[in-house]
Design goal:
99 residues; 4-stranded parallel beta sheet
């Protein structure tokens, strides 16, 4: 039975492990990454259908990574996570959504 291939990206390992437990077995977790740069290095060969990523991470934020993901895996659906209640972040996210 084929399941949807999903990648999880968050800089907090505890949250990554919790997310994995939540989505399996409904989804096939094909990648766990603690930063966007590592994920972008491997995502082309992993070919996920869904990428769940944190917006606020060191090295590269999730919104910047989304720009690269749209080019590398254009059919992948992106799901963003954040604990930030800053309306500027939401405005930025909406701008990416319409681009």
């Amino acid at each position: 039975m084929l399941t949807t291939r999903i990648v999880l990206v968050d800089d907090h390992r505890v949250l990554l492990d919790a997310l994995r437990c939540m989505v399996e077995p409904e989804f096939q977790v094909v990648g766990l990454f603690e930063d966007c740069r590592s994920m972008l290095e491997q995502v082309a060969e992993i070919r996920p259908e869904i990428v769940v990523l944190d917006i606020g991470m060191p090295l590269m934020d999730g919104l910047s990574a989304a720009e690269h993901l749209k080019k590398v895996v254009p059919k992948a659906r992106l799901v963003f996570l954040t604990a930030n209640e800053d309306p500027v972040s939401y405005t930025h996210l909406r701008a990416h959504e319409t681009a």
